[in-house]
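User: Sorry, folds how?
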Amino acid sequence: MSHKKNRKSKSSSKRPSKRPKRGSNDSANLSVEAVGESLKCEVGGEVALPEAEITQLCDAIVARHENVLRMRRDVLNSKDDLSTDLADTVLGPDRESRVVPWYPMAMHPSPEMTRPSRTIDYAAGEFYLQDAGSLLALAAAQADTDQLRGKLICDLCAAPGGKASGLLEAIDEPYRLAETTPDEVKPPRGFLLANEPIRSRVAPLAYNLARTGSDQYAITSEDPEVLADKFPGLFDFVLVDAPCSGQALVARGKQSATAVQASQIELNRLRQNRILAAAERLLRPGGTIVYSTCTFAIKENEGQVRFMMEELGLNASPVQRLVDYRSDLPISFPAEALQCSYRLWPHRSACAGSFAARLAKPAAAETADLDRDRIDASWRRSTTSRSRDDAMVPRDAIEQLPFLICPDDRRHRFQLRDWIIDAIAPDAPDWVNEQFVIGPEVAHRTGSTWKPSHAAAIRRNAAIVGTTSLDVDDATASMYLSGQTIPATEQTGWQIVRHRGRPLGWIKSDGRIGKNHLARFARVE
């Protein structure tokens, strides 16, 4: 889709104690004048930063920033031995000093952790690496609280999945922690639709969602306007991490110095207007939208908040704990648009910089309950069509993978998608059955052979029926993650490799050696 040509990446952050690295050679051509022009208010002509700070901003834009660790929610919330050990080994004794202030569930890595992405803990999904600035959107969504529990959520521009996986953990983690409680007191489960218009970006999105271990999600690859036509007024919460000029990505080589040019900013502003109009249509009355970018241009940030208020009829929905990061534009800018707008500047905060805003769609008090009932009826799954789903599963898949694909397993709804089988949560929305929707994958066919998918091995909240496991130590886990064969037990067939109880992936054992079936994209090499 052309509207995401300038789509951004979502990683990198810098601690102020280290000297920033320079970015790409092209970043040296960054125009201070053009940056200043992009920070000028349309009304009044004032510039958002003092002149001296604009030079500092330009220097910070071309400086590389290290990633931070966004920890899995249950690692921080649980008191079991594994979580305690992780807190000590991954986070370190001085972790309080390294916490990201606007998102306490993330922190800068300890000095001893030189390559976090090459650790067993990372492979096991205990943390996600991303730019500290990108967490501002999750903070505005209150994803580190229970505010999203039980919500129906749409991430409209979701790849590669840093924010989407954070939202998924927010709606599903409270349920996972409550698995031992009686059904009548369990917290409600939410559901995430992660939409990515560019099909080539769907695969990394699917992988990052699978890493959470949840099955409460589905993926689409639709233009936002098309998606809004299909699901009008459906979602409680919509995240728009919009394609933008990407000024915060210049240092990483993901954008060039042209990111500060007026023509690029205007092109993206128009594209964002179209996406935001679609996002408003997706929202139910009373629903919430969080809008975010990785640029500093006022037209793409506070200007879009004003657009949502004046043209789309949305209202400010400020987050009190983010008041220290509220946009401080000159007084000529409409004050109501600044109440819910938040900025991180790379020369002031330990990150590459970002923008986020939180707004709400009005709802009449007397119709709110009726509206909620309508939505529940439209997307909550009916069990009457279950047999139709199971009938779609090929018989040879059931014969080859009986431990994985069992039509009598009431914890999944199996669905065939070309040469792939999805296993959908039983309480997922009705529309997950639509042809354009992708569910969590559990098996795929190569020729005439069905194989279990990596996503099936790493599910945490929906155990695979009858699957045996092989527990391994640190050394064997490292061998496995690098793609090597590993020693196996006398048990033959497909097995899930686990390290300290955490699933890593599949092997196929001959009773002596475990042939490595870890997906290449999940390897640590």
